[in-house]
Write a structure and sequence with these properties.
The protein contains 5 helices and 4 strands; from the N terminus they run αββαβαααβ. By secondary structure, the protein is mainly α. The chain has a two-stranded antiparallel ribbon with strand order 1-2. The protein has a two-stranded antiparallel ribbon with strand order 3-4. Helix 2 packs across helix 3 and helix 3 crosses helix 5. It is globular. The N and C termini lie far apart (about 60 Å).
Length: about 110
Amino acid sequence: MDILTTLRQYRIGPFTLFDSALAYLGVFLLAPLFTKLFQKIHLSITRIQWMWLTLPIAVLTHILIKQNTPLTKMILDLHGNYLAKGIVLFMLFMGLKDTKRMRGKN
């Protein structure tokens, strides 16, 4: 058994703990870079906002590349999984609610 398989066997429900932790750690470390990139298009997004947006961005990315994960299946299910949909929408709201449009230099 390789190390990745071993790390991915730990789960919270249908979700792998390793993948989730790695996604949040990656966004936490890259948030300053993301913030600088978005400042170039005059948007101010904090590290905390990036953390809130991690899950919605992951869901959107998985949907766009057509990779079926337990969470994308829950989100795309038309007649159920309202809790999962509500959590992702809440996280999207929390990530975007304090986003500020910066004024350009005149």
